[in-house]
Amino acid sequence: MKTSTETCAAEVDRVNQADWHRHLQGFADANIYQTWSYGATRWGEKSLSHLVLKNGSEILGLAQLRIVRAPVIGSGIAYLRWGPLFHQSRGEPDAETFRQLIGALRNEYVETKGLALRILPNAFSGTPRAQVFESVLNESGFNAMPDDSVYRTMVVDLSPTLDEVRRKFESQWRNKLNQSEKAGLTVTEGTDAESWKSFEALYHNMMARKQFETTVSIQEFAEIQKALPEALKLRVFIAKSEGEPVAGIACSFVGDTAIYLLGATNEKALKLRAANLLQWEAIKKLKQLDCRHYDLGGIDR
User: Fold this and answer.
1) How many alpha carbons lie under 13 Å from residue 211 in its C-beta half-sphere?
2) Cβ-contact 181, 284 below 8 angstroms
3) More confident call, 37 vs 210
């Protein structure tokens, strides 16, 4: 199905998985939650819908949505998590592009399919991207969600030099990092199956030791990791003491903002402050890749 909005055209459910992932890499606001692999694993491929906004052959915007329909009556909700994507990697967020993208989404999912449209944008409050979201969504008649549903997190600004980033950490955190750097730890980083296997073993051991409940499924992330193309796979950092893995973290390096998703430590790692070293090594890698922000994964309320 194709829908026109001024000079652009929206193609709905006509893209394949490989092309979707290739298009996604051209956007600064790309993220793991907008990957086909995440959506298909988390919600099921049959519940997904993909909209591509184009101007001729140029890709202007993307949106992966989860469609949830109510039994019998046929109505439902189109959920758009951390999207739509409109911020081109080579430029600044463009309000007109976003406006046309929102128009295409409303036309397809609200007017044509009769669904309620719920959008959880990928933008930190106060940023230029957030300003575009707020102005366009307000003028388009969207209502803001209640404050208790807003995503809250801590974000490391990676625009300063590496030394400046380090100086901005709390003194207690820097002291622990200093300790970890003197503890004789080695750190490996990879996207391969062996790195994931090592991390998964640490994670299962930690969960067995702590015995607490979580909504995070390590098995789901294992399936996502396997399905993602190489350029979009989670990066796994493993800290070793005398060759033994003692701690690990798994991060998504997609778009201009990396996301800390999973972490695992054993009892030895706690004494060695291995988690601090792993986060620092991740930040160093992000600086090498010219990433702008590091999202530490949300704050419990």
Assistant:
1) 1
2) no
3) 37
